[in-house]
Amino acid sequence: MSEGRVAIDMGTNGASKHQPAGLGQQRRGATVSFHNIDYKVTIGGNCLCRKKGTIKEILIDLNGLMKPGLNAIMGATGSGKSSFLDVLAARKDPAGLSGEVLIDGAHQPPNFKCLSGYVVQRHHDSDQWDLW
Ligand SMILES: Nc1ncnc2c1ncn2[C@@H]1O[C@H](COP(=O)(O)OP(=O)(O)O)[C@@H](O)[C@H]1O
Ligand SMILES: [Mg+2]
């Protein structure tokens, strides 16, 4: 992360400890784990005139676990929250990405991008849209 750090709140997820009768065998959501996540982009390069770009490291060595329920990704603006969410949802260019995201301990299926999603949220005090 270039301008701060992303904190991932994994200690208190919102899953209820009490299950209604008969739900014991049902799936209650997936566990997402991420291992050694690095993400970088190249800025300013131009293949035509062989100008090399500069590499900007967006995410550096992120590791953690998200259990079913409510999880939070917290950090200052520019710390990499949206980039990290994109990585979890398989929406980043694999070229600048390394590390692993596992769903219940298995690799994401090839169509994971179609199975996952998130909602963009509008700031109340500005005209800008932002990904949380
Ligand atoms: N494609 C990109 N090219 C250059 N810089 C980027 C790109 N994507 C993200 N960044 C930079 O990475 C940092 C993290 O961005 P972002 O993930 O949007 O943070 P947050 O969601 O926490 O505000 C910012 O400095 C942003 O400018
Ligand atoms: Mg964001």
Automatic annotation (TrEMBL):
Annotated stretches, region: Disordered: 1-26
InterPro entries membership: ABCG_transporters, P-loop_NTPase
Keywords (A to Z) from UniProt: Membrane, Transmembrane, Transmembrane helix, Transport
Major localization listed first in the record, in broad terms: membrane
Membrane topology designation: Multi-pass membrane protein
Keyword check for Transferase: no
Gene Ontology CC terms: membrane
Record flagged with keyword Metal-binding: no
Locations listed in the record: Membrane
Protein's recorded name: Uncharacterized protein
Lineage: Eukaryota, Metazoa, Chordata, Craniata, Vertebrata
